Amino acid sequence: MSAQNQIDNPYELIGGEEKVRALVEHFYDAMSDHEPALTALHQCDENGRVDRGSRDRFALFLIGWLGGPQTYMERHGHPRLRMRHGKVPVNAAMRDGWLRSMKKALDTMQVQGNLRGFLDARFAEVAEFLRNAEG
User: Fold this and answer.
1) Span 9-129 CATH architecture
2) H helical segments located in the chain
3) Span 73-84, pLDDT tens digits
């Protein structure tokens, strides 16, 4: 088994809730700055940046997905990612833009080593799983 598959609790390794929330902020900032097509799919504030509600909801999801408290599930139920993203055409360009934004966020947070390899692989798997359109 590779080191990437031996990550017990990415939530703890990344530094808990505060660090996950910071990652989400950097992710949506990168998206708002560099991925206009993705940004347009979200509720945005008066400055055209992904709004607080989207950021908070994704932070709760990511906290649980990474192995932290399951507050997202308690508030919103099972994520059902494919169903929730089904109304949005997710093609390869959208997938790649999402991954670019997350990579920029991980770079900004200086996530490295085995944790970075694990997260890059998992985010790529999920992004591909959500792809539902050609192109």
Assistant:
1) Orthogonal Bundle (1.10)
2) 10-14, 17-34, 36-39, 52-65, 71-76, 81-85, 92-108, 113-129
3) 777 666 655 555
